[in-house]
Design goal:
Layout lengths: L8 E7 L3 E8 L5 E8 L9 E2 L1 H15 L6 E8 L5 E3 L9 E2 L7 H10 L3 H8 L8 H11 L1 H5 L3 E3 L1 H10 L3 E3 H4 L5 E2 L4 E2 L1 H6 L9 E3 L4 E4 L12 E3 L2 E2 H8 L8 E4 L3 E4 L14 E4 L5 E7 L3 H11 L13 E3 L16 E3 L7 H28 L9 E4 L6 H11 L3 E4 L4 H15 L3 H8 L4 E4 L6 H13 L1 H4 L2
Helix pairs in contact: 2-4, 9-13, 10-11, 11-12, 13-14
Amino acid sequence: MAAQAAGPLVVGVDSSTQSTKALVVDAVTGEVLARGQAPHTIGGGAGKESDPRHWWQALGEALDQCGDVARQASAVSVGGQQHGLVTLDAAGEPVRPALLWNDVRSAPQSERLIAERGGAKAWADRVGLVPGPAFTVAKWAWLREHEPAAAAATAAVRLPHDYLTERLTGEAVTDRGDASGTGWWASSTGAYDAEILAHVGLDPALLPRVALPGEAAGTVHAGHLPLPKGALVAAGTGDNMAAALGLGLRPGLPVLSLGTSGTVYAVSTHRPADPSGTVAGFADARGDWLPLACTLNCTLAVDRVAALLGRDREAVEEGGGVVMLPYLDGERTPNLPGASGLVHGLRHDTTAGQLLQAAYDGAVFTLLAALDRVLDRVLDADAAPDAPLLLIGGGARGRAWRETVRRLSGRPVVVPEAQELVALGAAAQAAGLLLEEDPATVARSWGTARGAEYEARPRDDAAWERLTATLADGAPLLRP
């Protein structure tokens, strides 16, 4: 199979919350020659935690499934779940399981950090984001407070993709995209913020070097993986930055990603700073910016509602006035870490299908409200008001998700044919490094954003108003 490839082969990796995926891709044509996937284990209990060694094991299993073509790859890159706090000892072994992005136990530390360092606007202006519970700086503060022995034993702090890149290369390297989601990398300076690090008691020597866009992290030195020793390893990036690369995203084109979490973002040439905290002013993996808003409750929450109702996830019915805010895991956008799901307007004639549709509506409403802020208040000149929404993620394949987005957004929708966009974006980064080209240009040459197009529908203003009113009136219940 590799002998028929038009160009050299690259490997793109997506190390997500639930699993690791690996793709072997022709660097010239974008053809996927092999793929593999292996699950992760997430611990139970009060928080959301995962042993980083399981990610490494899953990477090996996913590459094994790719077969011999993985051994012919000339470059590799890892896209990974953002914000996770990986603490390593002096031998490079995990001190404790990683605190994942969706662990909201650090909400009190988040609030204190915001207050102690000048308030939300000061954080947004300096760092580019307001450090909610998801962000790494709040998780480190939680660890120091609740597990001081673990913090004291920590000799290195990494993000999930950094951990895998370091095990591949032996080099401590991250990139500006993933670093911008920590809360201790300042978008205003493009460097780690010494004052914030001192404030939270984190020695900058424990952090990885931040590679420039297009710079290699090193070469493969791990001998037991089915990758050739000496293959180039790109710096990698966060999963959202990798997906933007995978789409070859141009400034102003909005993306709505429907996964375990929901995200909305667009590439911008302007450095974003949103003092409300709704929009995180991330850097992208190329040198531009990726203003992004994220919700905790997306496909997983809606699937849970479908299971409780005993219905197929597509068995929705429009109509009725019931409203649901499916904040089953607390919520990040809006910032309601202690919230639970809320149902309002239930009647004798409400059907199970209408209740399930209300769960979809609540999840999509939250994302679209955040997207309005991304486009209207952050991107300014980069925004394209009539641009279609690019709908990606596992939910994009579902009719109920797609039609809910169309009905509540009033915008045309495109569902790209390409799947596994995080892994494809990582592959494009590896190909760009290898071919000395812009990775987004590489991805556009692969045609990754092509897909089914759906015309705009009139926006359901009545449903939007019901959801807006329920969110406002339910505030005392959502902030226990």
